[in-house]
Write a structure and sequence with these properties.
Blueprint lengths: L1 H28 L17 E6 L5 E7 L7 E6 L10 H4 L7 E6 L13 H17 L7 E6 L1 H10 L6 E5 L5 H8 L5 H4 L17 E4 L9 H10 L4 E4 L12 H13 L2
Parallel strand pairs: 3-4, 3-5, 5-6, 6-7, 7-8
Antiparallel strand pairs: 1-2, 2-4
Length: 266
């Protein structure tokens, strides 16, 4: 009887934790108020624009236009944490590149209304593509750049499209596998709402692709980025620095890789 009581208690605790994970999973996945890069000074000129989604949400975006005819335009899809300001240290480097860019904030981020979900973020990204199209930029001149969680959105919207190129920074294979690496004893596939199954979609991407992933990533295991590269179609390129963590070092080597990739698209 004692053993059965202990077993029953363990099962009850397991079910309670499973219920908590199910109920609060989006709080664990999306962190709009987190700020890791406070104080970075914006060195590149940007225009603040609003992008309206199909479900009538206005998204804040930063737009930088050099030359729409001569240069490609990067659509930057950020990760699961922080405001647009958290990417200043990255986009400052775009000033020295021959690119235009649009950095869009997800619903629920950077003061935008709404709550982030997989379906919602797909709508946000497609609305950003439409905004670029409406402003005279065709898909074949757009580079989709996904950062971390944004790689899951990038692989979704890039399927069967004629984009100039795709850049995936610290990508995961699927949110199912990413969550399993953290919560291995729970029925993740059953309870997970936002699955982002990029490994099933990357074969549908025909555009040139660059995969970047640090080998000591403590958040998204490096093997996921390597697998995404292996699954990708040619032409494909990789940058796997040995000592980079999840937040990759935007140093000369990384910037050079992005520049070389962009030049290869012309």
């Amino acid at each position: 009887m004692y053993i059965l009581s202990i077993l029953g208690l363990v099962i009850l605790i397991y079910l309670i934790i499973t219920f908590i994970l199910y109920s609060y999973q989006r709080n664990l996945m999306y962190h709009p108020v987190e700020n890791n890069y406070q104080g970075d000074k914006l060195m590149v000129k940007i225009e603040k624009v609003n992008i309206k989604t199909e479900d009538n949400i206005d998204l804040l975006a930063w737009y930088h236009k050099k030359n729409l005819t001569k240069y490609k335009t990067i659509l930057y899809l950020h990760g699961n944490a922080g405001a647009l300001e958290n990417r200043i240290h990255k986009i400052n480097h775009f000033d020295g590149m021959k690119v235009n860019f649009l950095l869009v904030a997800w619903r629920g981020f950077s003061g935008n209304k709404g709550s982030p979900t997989e379906k919602g973020l797909y709508q946000d990204a497609r609305s950003a593509v439409k905004w670029l199209n409406d402003n005279g930029i065709r898909n074949e001149n757009i580079i989709i750049y996904g950062e971390s969680l944004g790689t899951g959105v990038a692989t979704e919207i890039a399927q069967n499209k004629n984009f100039a190129g795709i850049i995936l920074e610290s990508p995961f294979t699927s949110m199912i596998e990413a969550a399993r690496s953290r919560y291995p004893i729970f029925p993740i596939r059953l309870i997970l709402k936002d699955k982002y199954e990029s490994d099933k979609k990357i074969k549908n991407i025909k555009s040139p692709i660059l995969v970047m992933h640090g080998e000591v990533d403590k958040i998204v295991p490096f093997w996921m980025g390597k697998k995404m590269f292996e699954l990708a179609n040619e032409p494909k390129f990789f940058y796997f620095p040995k000592y980079d963590d999840h937040m990759m070092e935007f140093n000369k080597k990384l910037i050079n890789q992005i520049n070389l990739f962009i030049k290869s698209l012309n």
